[in-house]
Amino acid sequence: MSILFNYNMEKLKEIARNRKIRGFSRLKKEELVNKIEESLLDEDFAYEFFKKIDKIEFDTFKKSIATNNKICDKLIFASDLEDYGYIYVTEDKDVIVDNNIKNIFEKIQTNQFKKDRQRYQLINDYCDAAINLYGICSINKIIEIINEQNNINVTKEEMEYFLSSTFLDIECENGYFYESRIPILQNSDLFYQNIKFLFESQSSKPYYVPAKEEFLKYKDLFYFEKNKEYNNLHKYIYKKTCNKNLTDMICTKIHQNCSDQMSLQKTFDDLEEFNVLFDSDEDAQIFIDMIVKLSNNTRLKSNRGHTPLEISKLKSNLTSQTHKKIGRNDLCPCGSGKKYKKCCGK
């Protein structure tokens, strides 16, 4: 008997929906299991699916195959593998793979597949990093960044296919893409209002584009640049806590407040919750000065990854350069890549 029979109808329908099986809602359980099993033997579908899944899931699947259907790993995340029927997860969160699926997987492991997967994952990493760094990114800009940093030729058509097929929560609108996962405790209206506000606040600001190694660090949702201002704050807080883990937690929270452009009072409230106290008014002023410096040197999505200090310098340079009579057909000195007449010279 197929292991799929262990799932209830709700889970089977979810798998059928993901696999785009027609008329699944009208099928009885045995019919539905048969349709899913038939779909799981589709090599083209498997090729595209395994090309797209992330490294953690891909490696988990390979481990499951290597152990010959024995309990091999624990899944602690929402699994696309399970949601598409390629693995069965027991109540104890152990992974089991059907032999027919193993055979399909081994069959698609060609050199071409490995090249296709590597290319797809590279695009995936860049788009993930762009969302975390910019919030909203131009499709043309991410193509430009990928091609310049990797000496490859990702086309507009290839990027549009990626954005429409990726497992990332991405939405596209008017040549831009952004994460479409609505945060907990936030309704959809407020979410899209915030997206609109972010887009307007970015205006015609240039993109901050670090070197490849640094750029791709931003694919980690929790990564941020620990500059000298952050390190100075860390030393200051550590003297008060004498606890590195607690200091890391406090400074990460403060950095997040700066990144979200929260009020200084919010940071003071957070310090109070952590029971961090000031010895004097002078001590509190030292802390305030540190927060101001950190805020001015924190990368903001509203600045397309630039810090407030960098944007201020860019504007200053733009002001000085405009006195040199920029031609209307010259590139705009703001760094947008547009002609001056179509950008700041409007």
Percent range for β-strand residues: under 5%
How would you classify the quaternary structure? single chain
Number of distinct helices: 16
State the major sheet: 3 strands, antiparallel
Gyration radius over CA: 25 Å
As laid out across the biggest beta sheet, the strand order is: 3-5-4
Shape: globular
User: What is the CA–CA distance across the termini?
Assistant: 70 Å
Order of helices and strands: HHHHHEEHHEHHEEHHHHHHH
Helix content: 55-70%
Give the mean pLDDT: 88
User: Structural class of the secondary elements?
Assistant: mainly alpha
Number of strands: 5
How does the SSE layout of this entry go?
Layout: H1 9-18, H2 29-40, H3 43-52, H4 55-66, H5 80-83, E1 88-89, E2 95-96, H6 99-107, H7 111-134, E3 136-138, H8 139-150, H9 156-165, E4 170-173, E5 176-179, H10 188-202, H11 212-217, H12 228-241, H13 244-259, H14 264-273, H15 281-296, H16 308-322
Antiparallel strand pairs: 1-2, 3-5, 4-5
Helix pairs in contact: 1-2, 3-7, 12-13, 12-15, 13-14
What does this structure look like?
By secondary structure, this protein is mainly α. It contains 16 helices and five strands. It has a three-stranded antiparallel beta sheet, sandwiched between helices. A two-stranded antiparallel sheet has the order 1-2. The longest helix has 24 residues, at 111-134. The radius of gyration is 25 Å and the shape is globular.
